Amino acid sequence: MNKQVITSDRAPAAIGPYSQAIKVGNTVYLSGQIPLDPETMEVVEGMEQQICQVFDNLTAVAEAAGGTLQDIVKLNIFLTDLGHFSLVNEVMARYFSQPYPARAAIGVASLPKGVPVEMDGIMVVS
User: What domain of life does the native source organism fall in (predicted)?
Assistant: First the structure.
């Protein structure tokens, strides 16, 4: 198995012993992204802005792997408050077009740095 590490300076640097993404063949496994501004490594303010930042971070890593968000086939969304589910849907519709990826939205007790949202995914590129 040939694993290729994917990195982008347009997304936050890993804050632990992991890679931003790993590519095996034409499949890319995108690590979880939280709403960190990649330049300051600080959490952005406001729920809508945080969701957008997560999608922007995923976009940067997807592009570094030779794809786009449209190449994501499975998206996992982790929320500390499922009351934000409809806002996530609204923002997601700005970043994706049909066919949408398969998806899970999971309520969790807490996330790194106390953020309310994290997302990871699996992408297939040609």
Answer: Bacteria
